[in-house]
From TrEMBL:
It comes from the Eukaryota. The lineage of its organism: Eukaryota, Sar, Alveolata, Ciliophora, Intramacronucleata. The keyword Endoplasmic reticulum does not apply. Residues 298-333 are annotated as: Disordered. TPR repeats lie at residues 233-266. This is Tetratricopeptide repeat protein. Residues 313-325 have a biased composition (Acidic residues). Gene3D superfamilies: Tetratricopeptide repeat domain. The keyword Magnesium does not apply. SUPFAM superfamilies: TPR-like (SSF48452). Keywords: TPR repeat. Pfam families: TPR_8 (PF13181). It comes from Euplotes harpa.
Length: 333
């Protein structure tokens, strides 16, 4: 990160999230509206300052400061939601970094451009191609942390494009780099993505459920260590589905119950509703399975022989045995 550059909107919002929750809905709405308006006015003022700064640095031959001004301008446009305009400034920053041999800045530029194309692709998928190109360039020159980030982004993109194979490969590389960095948070992200390919509802599409179960169990372990309750709930939900597919309804009901309780604590109504439905289905299957076993046990201990089911006879055979229907009836004249 470059010194004396503007903070991204996501960082500002995350720091103030707890304060916002402490206020009433009405006051919070008014306050956020005021803050947003104030930030936009301040951002526009700073944009003019950086425009003047970049021009002055270019004339003075201060390339590094010129590049920093372009980068800062791009961040401000990101905060305003103008991703296309931000990309233009990140590309200027990229040119400066290449010219002065700043590899760290070049990698940062590739990442920023790739992420912005990724955001634009959510509205228009044609931008996914540009996003992939820039994330690949980022991966080639980045350090270990940068390579981790590039593979995570590529995995997400390929998942959105429903290319599970490439998504899986990139998330596995991300996991490898996270382990190399000894980053529990990074491992949690990578394993969570591996276990959540194509979302929880499509978990049954995986042939190798044992391997998937291993990823989800590790994700549950990491989420517990990081005290990430929402991650724990999602992991229990997935494990419940995997166990249900194997016919282990006893274990699956316990996982669904845990997911339901965690969702209640975290206020995740969507996961809570899904876990409750799946718990009901698994519990019904469990009771039916027990009922069948009880019937079979009773039949084993009973003296009544279990007769094999007779195959149905054809109409022609019945007629041959019994004769025509009117054979024993008097004729009516």
């Amino acid at each position: 990160m470059y010194f004396n550059t503007p903070k991204r909107k996501e960082d500002i919002m995350s720091k103030n999230r707890l304060k916002s929750k402490m206020k009433s809905m009405k006051d919070s709405a008014l306050n956020m509206s005021y803050i947003d308006s104030y930030n936009r006015i301040a951002a526009k003022k700073r944009l003019k300052d950086y425009e003047i700064l970049s021009f002055a640095c270019k004339r003075a031959g201060k390339s590094r400061d010129e590049g920093r001004a372009y980068y800062s301008t791009g961040v401000l446009y990101d905060n305003l939601g103008k991703f296309k305009v931000a990309i233009a400034h990140y590309k200027k920053f990229l040119q400066v970094c290449k010219a002065i041999g700043d590899v760290h800045g070049e990698a940062l530029a590739y990442n920023c451009i790739g992420v912005n194309y990724q955001k634009m692709a959510e509205e228009d998928p044609k931008f996914y191609k540009e996003a992939i190109d820039y994330h690949l360039k980022h991966k080639e020159i980045a350090d270990v942390a940068g390579k981790f980030l590039a593979h995570v982004n590529l995995g997400i993109i390929y998942n959105n494009l429903e290319d599970n194979e490439k998504s899986n490969i990139n998330h596995q590389f991300a996991l490898r780099y996270a382990i190399q960095m000894s980053s529990l948070a990074g491992q949690s992200v990578a394993i969570g993505n591996l276990g959540n390919l194509n979302a929880v509802s499509k978990v049954s599409s995986y042939a190798n459920n044992d391997k998937l179960q291993m990823f989800v169990e590790r994700y549950l372990e990491l989420s517990s260590e990081l005290k990430y309750r929402k991650g724990e709930g999602c992991a229990h939900l997935q494990l419940g589905q995997l166990k249900s597919q194997k016919g282990d309804y006893d274990t699956s009901t316990r996982h669904f119950y845990r997911a339901m309780k965690i969702a209640e604590q975290t206020g995740d109504n969507e996961v809570k509703a899904e876990a409750r439905v799946l718990f009901g289905v698994a519990n019904a299957n469990l009771k039916w399975e027990k009922h069948q076993n009880e019937i079979m046990e009773k039949m084993k201990t009973s003296d009544v022989p279990i007769l094999p089911k007779e195959a149905p006879q054809d109409d022609d055979d019945e007629e041959a045995i019994d004769g025509p229907e009117d054979a024993g009836l008097p004729s009516v004249k």
